[in-house]
Specification:
Blueprint (H helix, E strand, L loop, with lengths): L2 H17 L9 E5 L5 E3 L15 E3 L5 E3 L7 H10 L5 E4 L3 H7 L15 H6 L3 E4 L8 H7 L7 E4 L3 E6 L2 H21 L9 H11 L18
Parallel strand pairs: 6-7
Antiparallel strand pairs: 1-2, 1-5, 2-3, 3-4, 5-8, 7-8
Helix pairs in contact: 2-5, 3-6
Length: 227
């Protein structure tokens, strides 16, 4: 994909996310890897609903800002995912309401934030890790992400919001949307003892769609989230 097309695609997806209320005000950011190296990133303090393709920030392979508006302060967050998820072509970070809410709940397992409620959560997201609170832009969050050793493509930043990496921008956006919808389902069903997918159903999905659903080998994907 050409740089020009990628700039346009970032704006289209960002506006779609904004218009559906998934990231309010000037919150959230998107980055995408350029074919020749480096990245495009949404600018700091820019609304995702009103991005200008020509003003999107461009960074070189060292993550140094080279053109466009000043980039998001969350560069360390993005680069940590690219460094550890080597197949990642894009990263999306939002302040979506339901995912943020789940990140604050006391019963959440940091190795598997959400139970396996739907097949598409497992197919598009897998499992989601929880990273302890860091202030926005804190470079130490990069160390926390790197500590996950690339095992997770989706991470919840406590009291802040979700971050998802994908092979393409489209894949990252769709995985982010699936994560938010699953968080919404979890909150709707919390305390109602819902039926999650069984181990046999999870294994069938993993075999059929070649999924790696156990980033932590010592952890059971069907961990009980009851409280």
């Amino acid at each position: 994909m050409t740089e020009s097309k990628l700039r346009e695609q970032i704006c289209v997806f960002a506006r779609s996310l904004f218009e559906r209320g998934l990231t309010p005000g000037s919150s959230g950011n998107i980055s995408a890897r350029l074919p020749e190296g480096g990245w495009l990133m949404t600018p700091t303090d820019a609304s995702m609903g009103f991005l200008d393709p020509a003003r999107i920030s461009k960074l070189d392979a060292n993550a140094d800002w080279i053109s466009g508006d000043k980039p998001t302060k969350e560069i360390p967050l993005h680069t940590a995912l690219y460094d550890t998820r080597h197949g990642a072509g894009a990263v999306v970070h939002l302040h979506s309401t339901h995912s943020v809410a789940v990140s604050m709940l006391p019963e959440i397992d940091p190795r598997a934030v959400l139970p396996p409620l739907t097949p598409y959560y497992l197919m598009r997201v897998g499992q989601t890790a929880l990273v302890p609170y860091h202030r926005p832009g804190d470079p130490q969050v990069a160390g926390a992400i790197r500590g996950l050793a690339g095992k997770y493509s989706a991470v919840l930043l406590a009291n802040h919001g979700p971050v998802v990496a994908g092979k393409s921008l489209e894949a990252a956006v769709y995985a982010m949307e699936e994560l938010e919808e699953t968080a919404k389902l979890y909150l709707m069903l919390r305390g109602l003892n819902p039926r999650a997918l069984s181990p046999a159903q999870i294994q069938d999905l993993a075999q059929t769609f070649k999924l790696d659903l156990h980033p932590d080998d010592d952890h059971d994907a069907t961990h009980d989230h009851a409280h």
